[in-house]
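Worked example 2:
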Amino acid sequence: MNFSKNTITAITSLFILLYLATLIFFLRDGSHRVGGDSNMTSSSGQSNATITIHTNVQNNIYGNSDVETTITNNMTSNTDYDIRNDIDNLAEGNGESNFSNTIDNQFEGKAEGTLSNSLKNYLNGSGGYGLDNNVLNNLGVNVDVKVTNDVGNETNGRKNDGGGGNNGEGNEGGQKPTPELVWGIDSASETTEDLYACVRENFGDPEVFGRYLITRDGVSRGLTAEQVDLIQSKGDYILPIYNNFSDATGFENGVNQANAAIKGANDLGVPEGVALFADIEPTYPVDSEFIRGWFETMASSKYESGIYGIFDPDRALYKAYNQAAERNGNLLKENYIWTASPNVGITTQAEAPDFAPEAPDNSLALGWQYGIDAEACNIDTNLFDGDLLEVLWKP
């Protein structure tokens, strides 16, 4: 059959158009794709991812404050959750404070996982406090989340369950959180209401009060039962100091001084487990044997061992302590150090320096008398690691 050149061209063009149309159709059809189905999201939007959120808020109040804390979680995606919300309020001193605590959790979509809410108020001062606790968990119909609420209030060591919230539980077995640092004072003067008023007016509200166990004429006034009651009525811990010696040399001398301190503590009613601090002043001669005698006697008693002094690396006390530790390695692990080095000067509570005590390496240096001989009130100012509170005389 004979076709003209134009006819052949027309037929060829028609086939090309049909091919292009077919190719465009397949490219536009969403049901055709290249490759596998890995990492594809299903039509329901469900994902294998887990969202972890841990929120912790701690408010430490020592004066007059109104504190409002709100934690809000608004979860709308379809996923797995691990969410923990913690609010801890610690109130000390004699201020007037109000706490408004709100935890608001909103879950929509198809969610699974765990939700834990903890709301604790520790009111350990002698002031007035107002509390408003609110926990709201709004869980949608497709939400499968295990919820735990722990809401509790503790006042001066006496637990009182309280607060609001869905599935709320009490604070049974709850422990007061240990603060990282606390501010405190020590004084050789008799503890009176006037002394407290002077300290609060000029410096701040101490949580630790260092006081002497036994009167030393011309040097320091010892504690009495009345002074103990006054200090503890303020919610303060007592750091007991023993200073009835002026020579810190010799093993037997260390033993004898420790026994005298133990007797003084027993007579005053200091409870078991409290650390008694030997006051080794910079003018005293000192050696490692005295330190060992003191420590080993205390370690075998119902009390803990503590030593106060200027633990400057150039001082004899520093060197004697390291020598004692070479003879008895338990000294580094069990004896508490309250150091007066370095001395950066008296400050108010609000202007206290960063915690930077000097002491032998690897020792339990948990106390720092950073300023001495305040012009007002006859006090020294201190910072203490919160762990030291475990071995002080609790209010």
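The domain at 181-391 is CATH 3.20.20.80 (TIM Barrel). The longest strand covers residues 50-61.
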